[in-house]
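User: Sequence in, structure out. Go.
Assistant: Echoing your sequence, followed by the structure tokens.
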Amino acid sequence: MYAQKKGKLMRLKFANLKGMEVLADKEGRLLGPVRRLQVDSSRKSVLGVVFKARGISKEQWSKVSKIDRIGEDVIYLPDTKAVRDDPPLGRDVKDMLGLSVTSLDGKFLGALQDVILDTDKWSVAALVLDNGGEVQVGSESVFGEDTILLQKGAADQIQPGKKSTPSGFLARVFSSEDEEITSEIEIVREPKKPSKRKKRKPARK
């Protein structure tokens, strides 16, 4: 589902990208899980992935142009030279989630729940709305500070979305364990114990 060779088109939600491990291929070194995604609002392009560095209490990042390929659970960088310690460029996608999405012909579409990435061009290809629908991002679209404006007729272009599944090995392990535990749980109600009432002694005359 996530296998990709460089130059091959693949679409991926940020929800699926988050939590993936970043690996330096040459050194065979796990660098940390993806936490954030940085985008260029004006160009609607993806700039970089931010991950939690292992062994140190800070974040590092890499430009998406340095990504060699994406596996099911791992994002491969060619080597550790692709890792950067300076502040990441662009706008954090997390800061955009929850913004209202409106078309340029004045129709409210919903609130932004997720973004869908075209990893061939590393652009924001579509948006996921809070009602579960997905809509393409046109060239006229504007990613504003308080709202996102899409092309005219965007309301008629909304397609039913597919449910996202947790990404990463640990996420899949824990989600499967939760399903197994839930399926095995049975509600057992203890029978009510009969109440014992003390008999009152008749009053003496």
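User: And one key feature?
Assistant: Residues 169-184 form the longest helix (16 residues).
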